[in-house]
Amino acid sequence: MLRRIIWLALAGLAIAAPPALADSHWNSQMKSAAETASRSAGGCTITPHSHGMLTVSCDRRDQATLTYSFPLNKGGRIHGTPWCSVTWWGYAEVHRSWNVVSKTLRVTVTVTDGTATLSTVNVGYYT
Q1: All residues at 6 or more sequence positions from 125 whose CB lies less than 8 Å from its CB, including other chains
Q2: 82 vs 34: CA distance, rounded Å
Q3: Closest by Cα among 75, 116, 123, 118 to 99
Q4: What would the pLDDT profile of 87-126 be if each residue is shown by its tens digit?
Q5: d(CA 54, CA 116)
Q6: DSSP states of 54-92 as a string?
Q7: CATH architecture label of 24-126
Q8: Measured in whole angstroms, how far is the alpha carbon of residue 21 from the centre of its chain?
Q9: Cβ atoms 36, 56 nearer than 8 A
Q10: Is the distance from CB of 32 to CB of 117 less than 8 angstroms?
């Protein structure tokens, strides 16, 4: 009996999933670290370099905030959780978060406690 229920559930998913997945489209975008929509040094030093890189140096008590905006495709709606990544190196605390505002995916990068050189910010999402 349990096998039959599992089989029926899997069959139902197999029938229902393709139309839902057919409407989804993977989108990805990349920006150089210098292409910020806004930035707040917050007591830190932000130094631009060639090839769109930024070096951010902060003491423990200071925090730099960099915001990146990515316009969304297909009506500005995301299905599921977007993927976002920051390429950087150095010795600092680097964190990222995201939110969607007015058909735009915004990624906020914060740097504290050290020096980090940021290269790119990447996002991926289903619409």
Answers
A1: 26, 27, 28, 72, 78, 79, 80, 82, 83, 105
A2: 22
A3: 123
A4: 999 999 999 999 998 899 999 999 999 999 999 999 999 9
A5: 8
A6: EEEEEEEEEEEEEEEEEEPSGGG--EEEEEEEEEEEEEE
A7: Sandwich (2.60)
A8: 22
A9: no
A10: no
pTM above 0.85, yes or no: no
Please tell me the predicted confidence (pLDDT) of residue 76.
75
User: If pLDDT is split at 50, 70 and 90, which confidence band does 56 have?
Assistant: very high
Find out whether 87 and 53 touch, Cβ atoms under 8 Å: no
Task: State both tokens at 56.
Answer: 């951010």
In this structure, are strands 45-48 and 79-101 parallel, antiparallel, or unpaired? Answer: unpaired
Q: CA-to-CA distance for 127 and 125, rounded, in angstroms?
A: 7
Structure tokens at 57: 């140096």
Q: At 2, is the secondary structure helix, strand, or coil?
A: helix
Asked if residue 68 lies in contact with residue 36, where contact means CB atoms within 8 angstroms, the answer is: yes
